[in-house]
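Posting this for the archive.
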Amino acid sequence: MPELRIQWDCIRHPGPGFQRLAAGEPSLLDALSRMLLWRVPLALVEGALACWSLAALYGRISDPSSPLWQAVAGSLPAEIEWKEIQGLLRELPPFPELSRILPWVALLTPLYVLSLWLHDAVWDHGCLWLLKGVKRTAGFRKTLVAEAEVLTVSSLGVLAGLLAYLPKVGLLLALPTGLLGMYFWILRGFALAAFHGCPSWKGVLATLLHGALLIGGMLALLLLTGVVLFLAQG
């Protein structure tokens, strides 16, 4: 399939690969259509697997006879009554049936993919602009096309990331799939640089700046929450 060859070429050689893709001057509608065609089914599978994993985890947590709680029960402090914990666990509401959740997952999946696309486009474009990688003649539309194309290319990474949901071996694959996710995060920088005609290092640095701002914002929010809770207790 030509589409798969293009994706694989961009993954192996992101600089020239995305430059050839940008040289074809794809329209925003074509890029968006390809993105939705590839990412929505994968996101639907990922969402279904996430719900299944969450239901299994909730089942282990809410069951007092599970191996998890059997291991915890033997190391509880003397002042904590195991029977009280058992009573609390039995009062937990049951996890909603997957047959009720999955229709909502299917309904919200396209919105999730579109919101991911717009989020990455806004943040990456702003960071690239700060690095003076956006030319005056190149507008936000080029970033939208670049982000749509790179989300299509990263579909192979998402497909590989589904291996993390495999029973028993999923934890062993967490590290390699996490590193793969970091690679595809940086891959957006090459797409940005190719479509905006700026050096690749500026595009990559823009995605790294995007990540740093997100992490900094989350840490600041956690710190602010901790301060508020501390003051409330005082």
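The mean pLDDT is 86. The two ends are 64 Å apart (CA to CA).
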